[in-house]
Design a protein that fits this description.
The chain is of the alpha/beta class. Helix content is 41%, strand content 10%. It is built from 18 helices and eleven strands. It has a four-stranded parallel sheet with strand order 6-5-8-9, with helices on both faces. β2 and β3 form a beta hairpin. α5 (119-135) packs across α7 (172-188).
Length: 457
């Protein structure tokens, strides 16, 4: 059984990693993980790859930086003949509004990219595709945004019955990469494989979505570089940056995709609700799954990070400050979509809308559920192990203290049944066992060898 579980775990790529030498077994991450993916065993944290959704919650709360996200180094772009940066909409919120947007994006050219194609332009494309999808009333409600890969994976792991509620349209970063790679290949006369498109990412979940896509065999993106990796390089060389006029094309409204509520504002159709913060998202999904959600919303914008993507673990600015900057940009930058400018060598607006009509930006497949608990190899063994699981769970104190290294007593019971933990790893069960042994020793201490029993009479 344990071998079968390990085989399943090898199937998953993860950006979130553990530096064991820095782990102090504090259990902060154990308590914070929304999918109960982390345990502390033998004085070190362990991450279950089947349950992990790369949301980065553990990165935020780790006091020793033992959790980190593996991203591509900036030097990786030099593998390609033509290098394109696709900065997330949240990128703009990291810089003071006194720095012109053209200067910020030109900083990426200074770092070695040949051009910049804003992720917010992908947001404009996805907005049009989403509006078209919502015009058809023959879909499950509420529709759930597909932008946040951590939310999609959360649904896979904890709420598989809601998978069909996820809108079958790819995320803005994928749409942007698809358009820019196709148009540059056509203009430059080189194969798409020689065009490197790198996402400047605010979070670990998007790294994983690029390395191991959920609903397509391969994304048009070739890698992901953390915002935190390029921010300091740009700021320290800001005076050397040569401004490329008009490089910032995305509308202010499209930049709103980077902050909570921005996607809903741009879509503008039906009753919409924006929820940010992984704990809040879990609570809303629980209500929907239990049929207790009777507010009649048509569309849910769900973000794992507080304040939206601007609160990602790979950003540098306080999420509330960054969100405020995005809100200011929404109010001051053009409301006209950048993709409407038909600037060569981009695909024209007519070509993009035609691709939307043809379903080019639709997900290639529906994300499937991710089974997190494998009990037994046949129905008989599974039933027996489920009974054992219930018995072990019922015997535990139910206070979810975390001293066993698991987040809850129920999770610990699963570990015991899967032979990943021993029942006496629970301090309460250990105390019961010690008390039982002490009682037995007391009884034994009063007993005499058979040869001496008659002498007592």
């Amino acid at each position: 059984m344990a071998e079968k579980q390990k085989k399943v775990e090898k199937e998953y790529y993860h950006s979130v990693r553990l530096a064991e030498d820095r782990c102090i077994a504090c259990t902060h991450c154990v308590r914070e993980c929304p999918t109960e993916a982390i345990r502390v065993r033998s004085g070190k944290a362990e991450i279950n790859p089947v349950r992990c959704i790369d949301c980065g919650a553990c990165i935020r709360v780790c006091p020793t930086d033992a959790k980190y996200a593996r991203t591509d180094p900036l030097e990786a772009i030099h593998r390609f003949k033509h290098k394109v940066a696709v900065p997330a909409s949240a990128f703009a919120g990291q810089f003071k509004t006194s720095i012109p947007p053209d200067k910020i994006l030109s900083g990426l050219i200074y770092l070695g990219f040949d051009e910049v194609y804003e992720g917010a332009l992908g947001g404009e494309i996805v907005t049009l595709a989403t509006r078209r999808f919502l015009e058809n009333e023959e879909h499950l409600k509420p529709v759930i945004s597909s932008l946040c890969p951590a939310v999609v994976r959360l649904i896979q792991v904890r709420f598989p019955s809601l998978l069909n509620h996820i809108i079958p349209i790819e995320a803005p970063m994928d749409a942007a990469a698809r358009v820019v790679k196709a148009s540059r290949s056509r203009e430059l006369g080189i194969p798409p494989e020689e065009i490197g498109v790198f996402f400047i990412t605010p979070c670990s979940a998007k790294v994983t979505a690029i390395k191991q896509p959920l609903a397509t065999p391969r994304t048009a993106l070739d890698g992901a570089i953390a915002i935190s990796d390029v921010y300091n390089r740009i700021m320290s060389n800001l005076e050397k940056v040569v401004v490329v006029p008009g490089i910032a094309r995305a509308s202010g409204l499209a930049l709103g995709w980077g902050a909570a509520g921005g996607e809903n504002t741009l879509i503008g159709k039906g009753r919409r609700l924006a929820v940010d913060g992984i704990a809040n998202v879990v609570r809303v999904l629980e209500l929907i799954e239990s049929d207790e959600y009777h507010h009649g919303y048509d569309y849910l914008e769900l973000r794992a990070c507080t304040s939206g993507c601007v609160g990602g673990p790979l950003t540098v600015e306080d999420p509330f400050v960054a969100k405020n900057r995005i809100d200011e940009l929404r109010a001051t930058r053009s409301e006209k979509f950048g993709i409407e400018e038909n600037r060569p060598p981009d695909l024209t607006f007519q070509e993009i809308t035609g691709l939307i009509e043809d379903g080019e930006f639709n997900l290639r497949m529906t994300p499937g559920p991710r089974p997190t608990l494998t009990l037994g190899t046949d129905i008989t063994e599974t039933i027996a192990l489920m009974k054992k699981l219930e018995a072990v769970s019922a015997s535990l104190p139910g206070i979810d203290c975390g001293s066993c290294g698991a987040p809850t007593c129920r999770a610990f019971a699963e570990d015991v049944v899967l032979e990943r933990a021993h029942i006496t790893d629970c301090t309460f069960k250990l105390r019961e066992r010690i008390q039982e042994l002490a009682k037995q020793m007391g009884t034994l201490s009063e007993q005499l060898p058979p040869t001496l029993k008659n002498q007592r009479k």
